[in-house]
Amino acid sequence: MDQNFETQLANLELALYERASRWRTVNDWPAESLLSCGQAGVLAGLAGMSGWSALRQVQTLIGLARADLVTTFIITQHLGALKRLIASDRASEQADIIEALSSGRSIGSVGISHLTTSRRHLDRPVVTASPVDGGLTLDGCIPWVTGASQVDWIVVGATLPDATEVLALVDANTAGLQPGPGAKMIAMEASCTDAVHLNSVFVPWLSILAGPELNVLSGGSRAVKKSSGAGGLQTSALALGLSFAALRFLEDEATRRDNLLGIVEKFSAEHTQLRQRIESATEADSAVDLAELRTQANQLVQRTTAAAMTTAKGAGLMVDHPVGRYCQQAFFFLVWSCPQPVADAHLCEMAGLMDA
């Protein structure tokens, strides 16, 4: 990165950090921080529109997550929509939408988890698509959409009667689309993640980004799947970013408490090693196991935030203390896009079965 951009990014991260404590409930959607990221060129860069390398992208995500995990998580879902739009055959026809999304003037999200993990055990697809004149109508319920009540566009996965699937770009103001206000959660509530109900929502063929085809998500680019899939690299980057936030608290405390020096040194070495592995995984020919990385990131963020709480003592339990927020947010990585092998590894670690 050039020096000017590094300075601009550092200033952006500081601004996000100073606002991060405000994003607590469904009434606290971080529109200001999202727009700041767009105006700084970060959204376009992370979407691969400004010549950023994969390494620069993951380094930026780590820094943003260290400053403000809620806003950064929303950005990952926004990028999921933007990248799929850019990679589609409709990109040239949707140039205005791409510009609005990349600048932060509009925010997008994705509703595709039901095509991969969420509710796949049900006999009937949770979101169906029916051919009609000029396009498709969508019906059903998307179980999880970040920014359900706040975003402007949603990339929706749906299944046709012949079992083929599509990805459709849906205007959030379309008739028949009914978002929930945001689920009540112990952490990340301001992300306004909730179900979205679809009642005969019309989508023109122009807005079909992929499909109809079997297993439509398998047709995405390797880069999109590597960064955004279940257990993907960006998820590990966000976990590491939050862990760095907790480590920053420990480092500050260690300037006044000698007993923490060895602990901080050990944690710092682990963070450096994991960051190097995550950065190495961005290389095209990398053989780094992404599930193993995710397991390590999950375990490290749980331990670092717990250590920060132990250090903060009773003050950490106060609602306005950052460490309490970090600990709650750390639990998020145990459920967000967490493949079963990663979950199993964490359960084994907690039960002391890692060597079994």
From TrEMBL:
Ranges that cross the membrane: none
Coiled-coil parts of chain: none
Broad class of enzyme this protein falls into: oxidoreductase
An example Gene Ontology molecular-function term: oxidoreductase activity
Tagged with keyword Oxidoreductase: yes
Enzyme Commission number(s) from the entry: 1.-.-.-
InterPro entries in UniProt: Acyl-CoA_Oxase/DH_mid-dom_sf (IPR046373), AcylCoA_DH/oxidase_NM_dom_sf (IPR009100)
Keywords: Oxidoreductase
Protein's name according to its UniProt entry: Acyl-CoA dehydrogenase family protein
Organism: Roseiconus lacunae
Source organism phylogeny: Bacteria, Pseudomonadati, Planctomycetota, Planctomycetia, Pirellulales
